[in-house]
Amino acid sequence: MSIDSALDGIDTWLARHAPATHRSLRPGHPDPDQHPLAASLGQSLHEDALALEQGRPEVQEQLADLLVKKGDWDAALELVRRSDRQWTSRWMADQLARTGNYDGLRRLAATGCPQATCYLLEDQLAKGDLAGALAGVVEFRSMNHPPTLRLLELLVDHGQIEYAQECIIRRLTLSEELIDGFVGVLVARGYRSNAITFLIGLSGTEARRDHVYALLADQYVEDGNWNHALALASRSTGHWTGPWLAKQLAKAGNVAKLCELAEADVQPVRQELVDLLVRRGEIDDALELLRGYVDGAESWANGELARLLAEHGRIDELRERTAAGDEECALWLLTLTQRDMPGTPNALPPQQT
């Protein structure tokens, strides 16, 4: 069943938010020269914006959100109706859940919308219907759709950690935010060992593998198991190992080891070293390192050097580098000059001659 068929059944929801039923909505606007979205938003839209609205689903969704915020549900629903993209059913589920219309969610879930099913499962768990929710979770897993973090959180709160893990463990489209969030939920509730088990299982898939390895190593460290963390880093061929080790050394304040690693590695490690020196107040040492990285043609260091020079009042060097053609320093010098008001703390000192 299509999203149009589902929308036709949500009569009570439409009656609450729109003066006409979904079937009565028609494309167009009384003014033939004005795009209906422009009329709804109360302002003209550039032709490029209209072209984007036709072709890019993320733009269509943002426009629908904006129309809802303006209270124009008719125009938002018309935009949904005209689109043939996958975002429409998820967007409808979000709106139904936000307004508490669970009858509409049930109708939408019946069309096979996983997001609507997710919201219904959240509601069942929140109301204490554990048996019904778990039966629904088993069905939801077959949809191969990422769960919401709220659903995972509720399952964990009901002691159903394995059900929560099964909802997420074999999904190939997981976001880093969802993985981080679930691990955070487990750790916050005292289930660090379950978090480690989950990450070990997830590391066997292709879903964000480097990110998962780094998270797993973090959890080993937090659990006091440095041997496991270092063993994982040493046998991994991913790009996460250098930045992860640099982060751990920086957290431990081990400047000597970080300098040693920075000699052999590139940007992420050297950035951690510079950040650590700045946090320790060793600005001169940080600047000296950055000057060397800039001379070594490491482009990332230009912006960092200019920022530190500006923030710590090294105006003469900013001017020198600007005169030599450093665009990052020129931008910072311009920013400071714009703030240069006589009698204020931000005023630049006079140029030395």
Automatic annotation (TrEMBL):
- Gene3D superfamilies given in the database record: Tetratricopeptide repeat domain
This protein's name: HEAT repeat domain-containing protein
Give the organism's phylogenetic lineage: Bacteria, Bacillati, Actinomycetota, Actinomycetes, Pseudonocardiales
